[in-house]
Structures are given as structure tokens and as C-alpha cells.
Amino acid sequence: MKTQTVQFGVIADVQYADKDSAEGRAYRAALPALEKATVSFNQNTLDFVIQLGDLIDGGQNAQSELQAIAAAYAQVNTAKYHVLGNHDFAGLPRHAVLQTLQMQQPYYFFDLKGWRFVVLDTLDYAVQGGWPENSQNVKNACDMLDQARLKNADNAQPYNGAVGLQQFLWLDTIVAEADARNMPVIIFGHLPLMAPGEKHTAWNADKIVAAIEKYPCVKAYFAGHNHAGGYTLHNGVHYVTLEGAVNFAADQGAWGIVRVTAKKIKINGFGALTSRTLRLDRH
Predict the structure, then answer these.
(1) Mean pLDDT, consecutive 10-residue segments, the chain of 283 residues?
(2) Considering its fold, how many domains does the chain have in total?
(3) Which candidate, 108, 59, 33, 37, places its Cα nearest to that of 256?
(4) What is the pLDDT of residues 83-110, one digit of tens each?
(5) pLDDT at 282
(6) What is the domain extent for residue 201?
(7) Residue 220: inside a domain, yes or no?
(8) Is 1 inside any structural domain?
(9) How far apart are the C-alpha atoms of 170 and 149, rounded to whole Å?
(10) Is residue 160 part of a domain?
(11) What is the pTM of this model?
């Protein structure tokens, strides 16, 4: 399938909260920082903007803070998409987060100009994923976390999660279809998949990587969660972790504009976000 150039805005880990800064995170400054990024997005011709999770830090004021930051994000004047992050559920049940963000599904895809863009819910199995305590999702998460702890895995952390079986089946179906149609695919998720075993990676990152790398159409995976950011090229797939906006909110901020063509992905970073040019050589 013939592709056209797509240009989109990205930001990760805004993590707004009406509280004092701590641990290098300027929570209160995150709201004006997102507004600054929104102005930048609106000054460019973008096909869409996507935020990669953790819009809020969470806590007792989670609902009002999520409403406030969602309203700021709504000022983006093009199509807007959300990825779910673990902090989005700190103090809120899953259904409330989905409703406030006007998300029909926690994971989904959309096609644009010959490209397929896939959004994963990496808190599908999670103890901090907004699920009821007695749900099967939490039970599965507890089992996976216990197994990771028995292995002394660095990512055996309660703030991580995993992609569940039903979502895996869905993912395989839509990526296989894109591959059959010769559609290049870019995937978004909150939790990184690389580097292997790093403490912020999804519990079943190895299985997710195997599932997406078997299809040559997959070109890149964008994540947040690890506020330091990062990059790995693995079997021809570019794994990009964006710097956390909240860590730079009081200063220059952190957001990006990504331009994708048939031959490369060019990330134009603003503020603290790293700029990168990624060649698409995988066949």
C-alpha cells in the first residue's frame, strides 16, 4: 500500500497534580507546560496528537485534576488520542478514567494515509490499572508479579503491568492484517518494552516484542513511563521512550513533533525531548 507523510505530536508523563514539586517532578507546573506544548502543536500542521499516559499523578484529587488536564489537552485543534498510564488510575477506577478521557476502548487502532497506528493498554493486567480488586485482571497481575519477584527481575514492580491474552489475540489480528496489506505500523504504549529487564518495562515485554517483531510491517514502538527516556533498535524495530514532561515542566518542557515517511521517522524534540532520525530499513 502506498503511504503518505504523516506528522503528529507526542508528549508523555505530564503527571499533573496540584501539589508541590518532589523528586524532580514539577507537578503543579505540568498544567501550564501542557498548555505550552498545545500552543506548539497548534502552530504546526499535524494529523493528530497523542499523549502516552500518566496525565495526572493521582491521589485524593485525581478526578478534578484529570478533568483539568484533559480540558487543557482538549485545546489541541486536531485529532487527539490517549494512552492509559498507571498514575491515571491512582485514586480512580478504570471506568471513570475512560469516561473522563472519552475513550471508547482501552486499546484500539486507527488507519491514516496508508499507515496503521496501534494503541496498547499495557496496564491490561495490573495491580495499579484501575481494575476492581477481585477482578481476573488483578488476579492475573498478582500471579505475574509474584513470578517476576521469584526471578528477582528488576521490573517486578507494582507500577508496571502486562498485555493480556485477549489483547494479544486482537493485536495479532490487526497487525497481521496490516502486514498482508503492506501497511507500515507504529505502536504506542505507556510501558517500555526495551531495554530487556529494565525496571520500567512491561512484565511480559519479551512476549510483546516477539508478537510484534514477527511482522515486518511494524516499524516503531513509542512509550513513556521511564522519565529518563531511551532508545533501542532491536531486530529492525525502533523502540523509543520519551522523556517525562513533568520532570521538565518548570523549565523548558518536553514534547515532540514526529514526521513519518516511507524511509524514516524524524522526531523533532522540543525542550528536553531528544530529537532523533530513525531510518526504516527493515524488510
Answers:
(1) 94 97 96 98 98 97 98 98 98 98 98 98 98 98 97 97 98 98 98 93 97 97 98 97 97 97 97 97 63
(2) 1
(3) 37
(4) 999 999 999 999 999 999 999 999 999 9
(5) 60
(6) 6-279
(7) yes
(8) no
(9) 28
(10) yes
(11) 0.97
* Residues with Cβ within 8 Å of residue 81, at least 6 apart in sequence: 48, 49, 50, 51, 110, 119, 188
* CATH number for position 45: 3.60.21.10
Nearest in space to 247 (alpha carbons), one of 58, 29, 64, 32: 29
